[in-house]
């Protein structure tokens, strides 16, 4: 049994086809198929049921996948021992957020010997990186409604999600925004405002997620840059939906309560069910908890 066989097998499971695995591994589909067939012959097991449109993993394959993923992860850790010079890993994937980036920077400020990897992306991207052992922690900001929809995916990938905190959404506006002095805004009125929204495929606290229908706002600004979002909001060009724990108390943005809104925004911690965290990663989780309301 060779590590290459396990790598081809695990990649084929993750991507759902030999062709996609071949593309990801920069080889050919026949080579992937031949390599996995050799592994099946050696084990005396059928790992995949072959179909014209792809492959599906068998029950025996699922068991082998668990062990193969663990072997590949441990091999990666062994290789990293020499590469990182003894630095403790802090490997995190997070929803694009200035708040989470600031907390991470504060945690790392007085820690010199860290192997820091911090990736921002969509919920799907974060779950995939955890599943593939590219990161050990995921921090996700999403609505309760969205959280329920990801439950099955989280279980399927053998991940766990813990809600660290949740709060009602607010409308955040800059100093020159017309709603700066308003005590509250009706949820239905959100459709008349110009919002900053992430591109499709990224998590969005959009008006449609709060009022249950497509927004018809007068302006549409799309970006996944927390810095640009904050700058545009500070100048009064647009507004953004978030919650109070996302913004520091000294922030120049002003929160406006959204009336009659039953939605909640959660900060979730995602990790592998049996994944071991480094000391630095455990300290990071404890630090995040301490900073939350």
DSSP strand content:
15-25%
The CATH architecture category of the largest domain equals 3-Layer(aba) Sandwich
Please give the count of helices. 10
What is the CATH superfamily label of the largest domain? Periplasmic binding protein-like II
Mean pLDDT: 81
Q: How are the strands of the largest sheet arranged?
A: 4-3-5-13-6
Structural class: alpha/beta
Q: Which radius of gyration do the C-alpha atoms yield? A: 22 Å
Distance between the termini: 51 Å
Which word captures the global form?
A: elongated
Main sheet characteristics: 5 strands, mixed
Sequence stretches where pLDDT stays below 50 over 5 or more residues: 200-215
Task: Return the domain count.
Answer: 3
Instruction: Spell out the helices and strands N to C.
Output: HHHEEHEHEHEHEEEEHEHEEEH
> Count the strands?
13
Level-1 CATH class name of the largest domain: Alpha Beta
What share of the residues lie within helices? 40-55%
Protein name: HTH lysR-type domain-containing protein
InterPro entries: LysR_HTH_N, LysR_subst-bd, WH-like_DNA-bd_sf, WH_DNA-bd_sf
Family: Belongs to the LysR transcriptional regulatory family.
Keywords: DNA-binding, Transcription, Transcription regulation
Describe this structure in words.
With 293 residues, the protein is of the alpha/beta class. The chain has three domains: 3-81, Winged helix-like DNA-binding domain superfamily/Winged helix DNA-binding domain (Arc Repressor Mutant, subunit A); 87-166 and 266-291, Periplasmic binding protein-like II (D-Maltodextrin-Binding Protein, domain 2, 3-Layer(aba) Sandwich), CATH 3.40.190; 169-263, Periplasmic binding protein-like II (D-Maltodextrin-Binding Protein, domain 2), CATH 3.40.190.10. 42% of the residues lie in helices and 23% in strands. It is built from ten helices and 13 strands. It has helices at residues 3-15, 18-25, 29-43, 59-84, 98-108, 123-131, 144-156, 207-211, 226-234, 279-291, and strands at 48-51, 54-57, 88-94, 114-120, 137-143, 159-167, 170-173, 184-186, 195-197, 220-222, 240-242, 254-259, 265-272. The strands form four sheets. The protein has a five-stranded mixed sheet. The chain starts with a helix and ends with a helix. 29% of the residues are buried.
């Amino acid at each position: 049994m060779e590590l290459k066989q396990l790598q081809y097998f695990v990649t084929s499971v993750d991507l759902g086809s030999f062709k996609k695995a071949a593309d990801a591994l920069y080889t050919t589909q026949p080579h992937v198929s031949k390599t996995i067939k050799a592994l099946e012959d050696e084990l005396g097991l059928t790992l995949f049921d072959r179909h014209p449109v792809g492959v599906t993993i068998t029950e025996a394959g699922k068991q082998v996948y668990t062990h193969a993923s663990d072997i590949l992860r441990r091999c990666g850790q062994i290789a990293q021992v020499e590469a990182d010079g003894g630095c403790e890993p802090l490997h995190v994937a997070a929803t694009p957020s200035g708040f989470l980036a600031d907390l991470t920077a504060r945690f790392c400020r007085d820690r010199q010997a860290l192997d820091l990897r911090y990736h921002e992306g969509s919920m799907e991207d974060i779950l995939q990186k955890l599943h593939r052992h590219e990161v050990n922690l995921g921090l996700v900001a999403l609505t309760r409604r969205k959280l329920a929809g990801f439950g099955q995916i989280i279980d399927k990938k053998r991940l766990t999600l813990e809600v660290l905190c949740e709060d009602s959404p607010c409308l955040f506006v800059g100093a020159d925004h017309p709603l700066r002095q308003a005590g509250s805004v009706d949820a239905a009125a959100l459709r008349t405002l110009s919002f900053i929204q992430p591109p499709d495929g990224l998590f969005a606290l959009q008006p449609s997620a709060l009022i249950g229908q497509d927004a018809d706002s007068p302006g549409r600004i799309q970006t996944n840059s927390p810095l640009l979002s904050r700058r545009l909001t500070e100048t009064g060009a647009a507004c953004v939906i978030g919650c109070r724990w996302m913004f520091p108390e000294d922030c120049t943005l002003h929160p406006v309560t959204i009336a009659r809104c039953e939605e909640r925004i959660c900060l979730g911690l995602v990790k592998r069910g049996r994944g071991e965290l480094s000391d630095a990663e455990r300290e990071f989780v404890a630090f995040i908890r301490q900073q939350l309301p």
